[in-house]
Write a structure and sequence with these properties.
The chain is an alpha/beta fold and 253 residues long. It is built from 11 helices and 4 strands, in the order H-E-H-E-H-E-H-H-E-H-H-H-H-H-H.
Length: 253
């Protein structure tokens, strides 16, 4: 069955509106990275709530100026407010506080360094959501921007970009997200940009070792080279812990 971007856009917009109405909510806060996922989600939220109820946050942390320009391109296009909330000094202070523990080679801290950045951003978004809820006299939610392909292989940071209050595109593959972006008019420079995390200086697909299209095919049960399918399955299994918190339940006996 072919993907109907118009119909799915209408459905997800209605889904957002219904949830906000049912829970008496007011606004939305989301990180704007300058990439397609946050660009599409921003466009959907503006359609659902109005640009006056959407707040974008650009949170540089030793980030590229090009990404800042692309974040501004999205906010200007859809007409919502964009806050520049620089986390570089916060990150640097966090790293400096490692000194009493020891001095570590960058190869040892690389994974920790990459993952602390989305966790700092998550804390920032929730702080601003609470602040704007007070300023605007109505609840603001933090909006998730992960797509289905990323989620399937666990390509997100536990306690970072995995934390949000509503997930508009979590059931759409990357190609479907792009199709929605084309329909709602996300700027082409953002929509077709090579996806990367803005943290490691590598593209997403370089880091994963497979393409998003291959991940989508695997999820759909389509044929793939054996080694590619095995790699996708291994990533999926390896990251299942990110979705569930094992909780001990005391016995009633």
């Amino acid at each position: 069955m072919s993907f109907n971007a118009k119909k799915e856009t209408e459905r997800v917009v209605e889904f957002i509106r219904d949830y906000y109405k049912k829970n008496n909510l007011k606004g939305a806060i989301l990180g704007i990275s300058g990439g397609k996922d946050s660009g599409v989600v921003a466009g959907l939220m503006v359609r659902a709530l109005g640009k006056e109820n959407v707040l974008g946050v650009w949170m540089p942390c030793h980030s590229k100026e090009e990404d800042k320009a692309d974040a501004r391109l999205v906010s200007d296009h859809f007409g919502f407010e964009l806050i520049d909330y620089d986390l570089t000094s916060v990150y640097d202070t966090f790293k400096a506080n490692l000194a009493p523990i020891g001095t570590f080679d960058e190869t040892i801290t690389l994974n920790s360094d990459i993952n602390i950045k989305p966790r700092l951003r998550m804390a920032t978004l929730y702080y601003l959501a609470a602040l704007y809820s007070e300023l605007k006299s109505g609840a603001y939610l933090v909006i998730g921007t992960s797509n289905k392909c990323e989620l399937h292989v666990g390509y997100f940071t536990k306690g970072g970009d995995s934390v949000h209050d509503i997930a508009p595109i979590a059931d759409f593959t990357v190609d479907e997200v792009i199709a929605i972006g084309e329909y709602i008019g996300v700027p082409a420079k953002v929509l077709y940009k090579t996806p990367d995390d803005g943290l490691s200086n590598k593209s997403d697909e370089d880091k994963l070792g497979v393409t998003y299209r291959q991940i989508a095919k695997r999820m759909n049960g389509e044929e793939l080279p054996e080694d590619v399918a095995a790699k996708i399955d291994a990533m999926h299994r390896r990251n299942l812990h990110k979705f569930n918190i094992p909780t001990y339940r005391k016995s009633n006996s």
